[in-house]
Write a structure and sequence with these properties.
Oligomer: single chain
Distance between the termini: 38 Å
Helix content: 55-70%
Shape: elongated
């Protein structure tokens, strides 16, 4: 916990900036393994598969107690989460 706003912003933005460091080496390795004619297709397939894996794992475990409780997002709206 810090009382410095600037320090908090730096520490919170650092993971976001470092999160995308794998793109360059991955695309370079993929494009060096295939013929120039198929480079765009290989990169498109890699992005498609990465997004499928990311979307599939975003809700894992499927029914966690934090998301399945009827009062889990009561802080977001004054009257709770569900329709009333």
């Amino acid at each position: 916990m810090t009382h410095s706003f600037l320090l908090a912003v730096v520490f919170m933005s650092l993971p976001g900036l470092l999160d995308y460091l794998w793109f360059g080496p991955t695309f370079a390795a993929l494009q060096s393994m295939v013929r120039p004619r198929t480079r765009a297709m290989v990169v498109a397939l890699q992005l498609f598969m990465t997004n499928l894996i990311g979307l599939a794992s975003a809700r894992w475990p499927p029914a966690s107690p934090a998301t399945s409780s009827p009062t889990s997002c009561a802080w977001a709206r004054p009257r709770g989460c569900g329709p009333r």
